């Protein structure tokens, strides 16, 4: 269903020959209206790929007619030629579809520092356009995969309207050098300002809190397009809830498919003085390589949780900290708590709770364990 | 030579039975004067082990008569009982040596959240005291090892005076959950204020810039003790240079013995607007798991260097960044530079230069690659 679950959209996914192995590598998503409202959120990395620089300009108008996405090359750190290539890609889509290039967003993912094979990409756009279909969502989702083992889609349905989408990658919006690309579509009749509020609110508590390996991509992009074809304008809160639900579902799928991971780790920080404190502490725990190794070894090593908390500027007293792993409070008041032998870590999902005992705020960060397979995949995934 | 290279010091290293495998685990370093001046630098982790809390108090007077160090247990996150145990350890050393407990610094390293076996540690102090020797430096250095494969010592000699020392662990002062403990001694006749300035100046550019895995210990401690027994007071700059040289040598040895590492990586940031910028960028590069994996795979993946730079707040323009790996400028002006095939990465030491083209300041951070062995060692090193 993916990006074509909502009415008013067509999509396609094809193999243009950008990937040397012949796998699908080019996706096209087209908004057939009547509305063409859109919002976007991009990587906060200051080294931005050419497609991000381009698409940020496109989104300024709040109007997107089409999104073209390629895997097999990030078009990042490619200089002026890389930007020209992105521009040419948008122009080509605009020409084929009879739209304006400034309404065509471009997303790329793959290796950094390599120019795209435009002799393959541009003809691929003709092929993709010829295959555009209201049932093309799955094929589009498949064509944006890189190291993903499965394609990721999600749909939430309201009263007569729908939000759906596709995602690839593993990482947070800011992280995941395995770039995260997400395209969401809706047939709800909402304007670009409403889309923008809903999307920013959703990404802040979903993709922003998915932190597989602490590395921030040059290409991360999340787009939300509205066709308005349902003719229904939901209440803003209801709509925002649906967008957040789709983002949360896709974010969880990204963590579940992270490179080399054997555990999905939910880091929940509770009783923080502020939400910012909760996020800072959650991220510090989620990025601690030693803890990630311990969890890989099914070792409930709460000392590594405490030492990660200790590096933050959050409000807490060391001797009031509590930590639970999979429901067992192995650390109480900053010291030894319940018997660590009670902790059952056999399953893929691991739940770490850090209680700061400093307030009432909370935040949840998702991450993965650190494995030999991660090292293998990322030392072999040559640039 | 280690801590007994300088005159006026005696040391011992014995197996007290704290480690279950019977390896040496208790070290004693005694300053026989005439001076007993000292300075110390401790972890910036807010979750501080009991021995750190104690030793910070000891150092306030600028006087240290003895240092007792144990491996086999960090005595961190052990509550009031843990602090009592550290206090009892200092009292025991004081009693055996006939000094005041408040002049006895205590250092511990090993697992977090486990109480020390005081029934073994306290009798061990008697044994160690009986073996104190002006030639005991090597044995002391051996007794503080945990996952270290070799013991680390260094000596620099001035005109009639000496600075020597020992280190264990891998990490920066702040990092390396494999706690870093360092004891330096000198027979130079210098006061505690001079020692403090020399030590802080040295750690800031040496141990503080050794960042094996970005994890900050609860126990990191660096002590510098002066006996004054040479009767010589060197010029302050000359003395500070010697302290910095010993710290740099020990820091390099720590990186060379980091857990599971196959590459030692020198990250040199040049042409930064400020030294703070250079350090921030260097640390960001040094902590990038994806880059560390790539270097493990001997892949000169400069895109990962750029994306790490892009996450910082340092002054730079993305299209003016340059990156060299082992002397080859693989990235020029933020884009593809010299042929990456020219980069020879066969050797253990790898040199990454990041040119920010934004000023004249520089900083060097040392780190390691990320390997399957690191994962193995830290998922098996059970808490």
TrEMBL record, chains A, B:
Catalyzes two activities which are involved in the cyclic version of arginine biosynthesis: the synthesis of N-acetylglutamate from glutamate and acetyl-CoA as the acetyl donor, and of ornithine by transacetylation between N(2)-acetylornithine and glutamate. This is Arginine biosynthesis bifunctional protein ArgJ. It comes from Streptomyces broussonetiae. GO terms for molecular function: L-glutamate N-acetyltransferase activity; L-glutamate N-acetyltransferase activity, acting on acetyl-L-ornithine as donor. It is an enzyme of class 2 (transferase). The keyword Iron-sulfur does not apply. The active site is at residue 179. Its main location: cytoplasm. Pathway: Amino-acid biosynthesis; L-arginine biosynthesis; L-ornithine and N-acetyl-L-glutamate from L-glutamate and N(2)-acetyl-L-ornithine (cyclic): step 1/1; Amino-acid biosynthesis; L-arginine biosynthesis; N(2)-acetyl-L-ornithine from L-glutamate: step 1/4. GO terms for biological process: L-arginine biosynthetic process; ornithine biosynthetic process. The record marks 178-179 as: Cleavage. Transmembrane segments: none annotated. The record marks 109-110 as: Involved in the stabilization of negative charge on the oxyanion by the formation of the oxyanion hole. It catalyses: N(2)-acetyl-L-ornithine + L-glutamate = N-acetyl-L-glutamate + L-ornithine; L-glutamate + acetyl-CoA = N-acetyl-L-glutamate + CoA + H(+). SUPFAM superfamilies: DmpA/ArgJ-like. Its EC number is 2.3.1.35, 2.3.1.1.
């Amino acid at each position: 269903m993916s990006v074509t679950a909502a009415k008013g959209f067509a999509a396609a996914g094809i193999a243009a020959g950008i990937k040397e192995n012949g796998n699908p590598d080019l996706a096209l998503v087209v908004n057939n209206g009547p509305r063409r409202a859109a919002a976007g959120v991009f990587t906060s990395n200051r080294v931005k790929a050419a497609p991000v620089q381009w698409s940020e300009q496109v989104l300024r108008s709040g109007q997107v007619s089409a999104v073209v996405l390629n895997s097999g090359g990030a078009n990042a750190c490619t200089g002026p030629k890389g930007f020209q290539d992105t521009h040419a890609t948008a122009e080509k889509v605009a020409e084929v579809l009879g739209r304006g290039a400034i309404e065509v967003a471009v997303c790329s993912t793959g290796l950094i520092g390599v120019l795209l094979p435009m002799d393959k990409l541009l003809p691929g756009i003709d092929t993709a356009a010829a295959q555009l279909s209201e049932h093309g969502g799955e094929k589009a989702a498949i064509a944006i995969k890189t190291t993903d083992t499965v394609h990721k889609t999600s749909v939430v349905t309201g009263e007569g309207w729908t939000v759906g989408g596709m995602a690839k990658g593993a990482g947070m919006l800011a992280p995941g050098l395995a770039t995260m690309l997400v395209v969401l579509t809706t047939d709800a009749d909402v304007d670009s300002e409403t889309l923008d509020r809903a999307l920013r609110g959703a990404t802040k508590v979903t993709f922003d809190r998915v932190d597989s390996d602490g590395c921030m991509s040059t290409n991360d992009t999340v787009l939300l397009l509205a066709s308005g074809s349902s003719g229904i304008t939901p209440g803003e809160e209801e709509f925002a809830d649906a967008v957040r639900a789709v983002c949360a579902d896709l974010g969880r799928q990204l963590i579940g498919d992270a490179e080399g991971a054997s555990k999905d780790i939910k880091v929940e920080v509770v009783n923080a003085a502020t939400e910012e404190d909760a996020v800072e502490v959650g991220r510090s725990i989620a990025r601690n390589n030693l803890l990630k190794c311990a969890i890989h070894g099914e070792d409930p090593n709460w000392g590594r949780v405490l030492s990660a908390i200790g590096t933050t500027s959050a409000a807490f007293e060391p001797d009031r900290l509590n930590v639970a792993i999979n429901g067992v409070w192995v650390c109480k008041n900053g010291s030894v708590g319940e018997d660590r032998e009670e902790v059952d870590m056999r399953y893929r999902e691991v739940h770490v709770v850090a209680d700061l005992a400093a307030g009432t705020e909370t935040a949840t960060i998702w991450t993965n364990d650190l494995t030999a397979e991660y090292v293998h995949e990322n030392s072999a995934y040559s640039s």
